[in-house]
Design brief:
The protein is about 35% helix and about 25% strand. The chain is globular and about 50 Å long. The protein has a single domain, classed as Glutamine Phosphoribosylpyrophosphate, subunit 1, domain 1. A hairpin with a 2-residue loop joins strand 11 and strand 12. Helix 7 packs across helix 8. The protein is built from nine helices and 13 strands. By secondary structure, the chain is an alpha+beta fold. It binds aspartic acid. The site of aspartic acid (ASP) has 13 residues, from strand 8. The site of aspartic acid has 13 residues, from strand 8.
């Protein structure tokens, strides 16, 4: 019984393509790479790949991670520039025994030397949004509004699992800043014997809880994906509040090896996309209700809206 799940509505078209691979008995790893690439290639989404929002120097620096739940092979690229599909580079690195995590120029150079498509990832729209933000920041607007990561998880018909993430990170981040998304255990984790998880939100805080590993560990202890997600999010939020005085956006998605999925958030408007064997791809809104989350199917009208800026 295969399943593919991912963070946000933006992953819908990607997981539909990934689902086609799984339907044909393809692998979870091919499906998650394919899904993440669809999002990376779509300039409409301003937080992933082409069209992603730049750092404070108006450069698009991207982070991506990839994990094979069978071998525990992990690869990542951090602050990579000028590469069309960071997730594919991360996947290739996950197959290696050493040099699995590459940063900055080294990551871009590796991609170029290994035949990955090179591309200027900064679009006119992203430049305009950057200029607008520079003006807003002069009036003391919050610098980091605008982020979101695509995190994709799948289990295939053989029971193999994988996790992939891709993001442009926080809008107006410092040059060289790396978020949680390419960090194993924080942005993503996959273990085919248990399950997989991925995160989105403010990376600096997600890292403090190694939240994806924590969710997989909670599933290993017997919690359902939904219970594991809620426990991890709200315990981390409580801990950050108590020990640090404040907390930020924390949203997650999880899948176990049986194909059951779950999600949780501490913000207002989180969403996940899900495709399963014998079921149409669906998008769900995730609402916080106390320290639980309510998961409600999104309407077609909401799914189809596109707001241009
Ligand atoms: N977690 C990402 C980062 O901190 C951003 C996001 O998911 O919204 O780079």
């Amino acid at each position: 019984m295969w399943t593919i799940v991912a963070t946000w509505r933006m992953s819908k078209e990607g997981i539909e393509k990934g689902a086609e691979i799984l339907k044909e008995k393809g692998s979870a790893l091919d499906a998650i790479e394919c899904a993440a690439k669809v999002v990376e290639d779509d300039p409409y989404y301003k937080s992933v790949g082409y069209g992603g929002l730049p750092n404070e120097e108006m450069e698009v620096e991207l982070d991506a991670g990839f994990m094979d739940g069978d071998t525990l092979g992990f690869g990542a690229v951090c602050a990579i520039k000028g590469v069309a599909n960071p997730v594919s580079v991360a996947r290739q690195l996950s197959e290696k025994n050493v040099n699995c995590v590459l940063v900055g120029d080294g990551a871009s150079q590796y991609a170029e030397n290994h035949g990955f498509e090179m591309k200027d990832m900064l679009t006119e729209r992203a430049k305009n949004l950057y200029r607008q933000r520079v003006l807003e920041m002069k009036q003391e607007m919050k610098a980091y509004r605008g982020h979101d990561t695509v995190g994709v998880l799948a289990v295939d018909s053989k029971g193999s699992m994988g996790a992939a993430t891709s993001t442009s990170g926080l809008f107006m981040k410092k040059k060289g800043r790396v978020g949680d998304s390419p960090l194993v255990g924080s942005g993503l984790y996959a273990d085919s014997e248990v399950g997989a998880a991925a995160a989105t939100g403010i990376g600096e805080n997600l890292m403090k809880g190694c939240i994806s590993y924590e969710i997989v560990n909670l599933m290993k202890q017997g919690k359902s994906p939904q219970e594991a997600c809620e426990t991890a999010v709200f315990e981390l939020e409580e801990k950050l509040k108590r020990r640090n005085g404040h907390f930020t956006d924390l949203s997650v998605v999880a899948l176990n090896h049986k194909g059951e999925w779950g999600c949780a958030t501490n913000i207002e408007n989180y969403a996940v996309s899900v495709a399963k064997e014998n079921e149409e791809c669906k998008v769900y809104h995730v609402h916080r209700v106390g320290n639980r989350c309510e998961v409600v199917e999104a309407s077609k009208q909401w799914i189809d809206q596109r707001v241009e800026e």
